[in-house]
Amino acid sequence: MLVEAIPAASLILLRDAPLEVLMIRRHQNASFVPDAWVFPGGAVEESDGGDMRITAIRETREETGISIDDPSRLVLTSRWITPAGAPKRFDTWFYLAKADHGTEATFDGNEAVDALWITPDRALAELKMVFPTIRNLEALRGFETADALIASRRGAIIEPVQPILVNGKPTLP
């Protein structure tokens, strides 16, 4: 039986000097990707009014204490759907937004147990992550500033990516 994908949104929050991304570590007892480093995000709630940007902003605030006041600042960069056959599935919209250099995150110890600003290259080399997080980080390579990265994605046509499971591991078809 195919498990339906739950609508969700994540925010890839960026800051400059050098280009860094905010990552949070999920609780080891989390029901989805426990103890993995991810971008702030989660499932759509009724109060979000069906706006994926509002979901990304709300989840970021809940998980990191960082507030984004203007949803129009968010730029869609990718959309990933958990592979068919997975026991829990999400249809996640990933957005980019820029934070001031001094922006610091806090975490509540429930959903997020740690937070850090890190360059994409260091994150890829050092952190335990899931496939969509890895692929989104790889797409950040080569940009020197958040503004350049965001400008490159503004107005881009975003097609959903749905990996397949091969021997229990996600891979692109």
Descriptive key words:
Nucleoside Triphosphate Pyrophosphohydrolase, alpha+beta, 173 residues
Structure description:
There is one protein chain. With 173 residues, the protein is α+β, with helices and mostly antiparallel strands. It has a single domain (6-171), classed as Nucleoside Triphosphate Pyrophosphohydrolase (Alpha-Beta Complex). The protein contains four helices and nine strands; from the N terminus they run E-E-E-E-H-E-E-E-H-H-H-E-E. It has helices at residues 52-64, 120-126, 131-140, 146-153; strands spanning 6-15, 20-26, 37-38, 41-43, 75-81, 90-98, 112-118, 164-166, 169-171. Strands 1, 2, 3, 4, 5, 6 and 7 form a seven-stranded mixed beta sheet that branches. Strands 8-9 form a two-stranded antiparallel sheet. Strand 1 (6-15) and strand 2 form a beta hairpin. Helix 2 packs antiparallel against helix 3. The longest helix has 13 residues, at 52-64.
